[in-house]
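Deviations from the work plan: none for this task. Representative record:
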Amino acid sequence: MLTLYTMPGSCAFASHLALEYAKADYRLAWLDFRRTEQRSAEYLKINPKGRVPALVTPRGVLTETPAILQYIAQTHPAAKLAPLDDPFALADMNAFNSYLCSTVHVAHAHKTRGNRWVDDPAAIEAMRRKVPETMTACFQTIETEFFRGPWVMGEAFSVSDIYLFTITGWLAGDSVDVARFPKVAAHHAQLSADARVQKVQAEVKAVA
Amino acid sequence: MLTLYTMPGSCAFASHLALEYAKADYRLAWLDFRRTEQRSAEYLKINPKGRVPALVTPRGVLTETPAILQYIAQTHPAAKLAPLDDPFALADMNAFNSYLCSTVHVAHAHKTRGNRWVDDPAAIEAMRRKVPETMTACFQTIETEFFRGPWVMGEAFSVSDIYLFTITGWLAGDSVDVARFPKVAAHHAQLSADARVQKVQAEVKAVA
């Protein structure tokens, strides 16, 4: 049994959806962000970084979306969520996921998490203003350089599709129109119709 | 034959050092950051993100340090640079590397790359001021929560040691005294004495 610590609207949605695609034996532990439970003493024992996702496994706790996604894929090979037997293709997939984690998610975080990097309220506001521009630049790069079609990595569906779907879902809130990126928009629409995505979205909505 | 695109002082040092530890068949392609060659039309064909590292392999180009490090470890198993046969331990290692990439490197980047996230010069200066505090917080977390000893992940050396060594090397320039973190400081001193590290450092120094 796996337990995923998650919060509505967070990138932990990707791990949640990957567990669903993997048909994993898992349960959810929702943190209440209104009570900043992710920084409670109890949760910091699980993840000292005070963030989600955290996946509690029989061996210990895993954090960080790219690491969790590969773990779910490797431990549920029947679901075919990653090119497990091809180190180059696996690294290629992980490079995409790492870009989402360290560049795209970080660009987005400057909207509401500016106090991680500055104290000055005017600087926090300056960060917030630039988010539509940086997110547009990131998705332009994804659209023109990385998205192969029909799935992110080409013919084979992978956890990169799940992760991209998650972050594409943030664009409207970042004042970026996904329609500017036709391939990404079609990908998002296609996955939005998937029963597994709709199940996970309904579970999020029920606690949000 | 592998070709690593790199720049002095960049995080590509980790991939360079991993290739050395792996005894890989590789060559270096140095980009001149004074001429911003990383954003030249020629280099953007190799890595549209305009950053290093980029590892050119017979199958194509790989980017992003965590992905490259796992690739080097998987394709050079004799070097024992990662727990390749244990999905949990591999994910645990990748979680550490992802934290370095998406949190610690990002904290550091607010010193000299602030224009990625704001336009206002005062905001860029506000970001720069907070870097010693954020880098201290990151390394405090590494010291107390993640570093197991004698190596990052415990008994076995891994690419996480190479990656941590790389970023620890930035602390002095970020006005943080590594001596505040005794375990990290000892780790850095031990690796600094390694002949492979000294070879790679000399190669960087020759072009810097």
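Helices of chain A lie at 12-21, 41-46, 65-75, 87-112, 121-146, 159-168, 182-192, 195-207.
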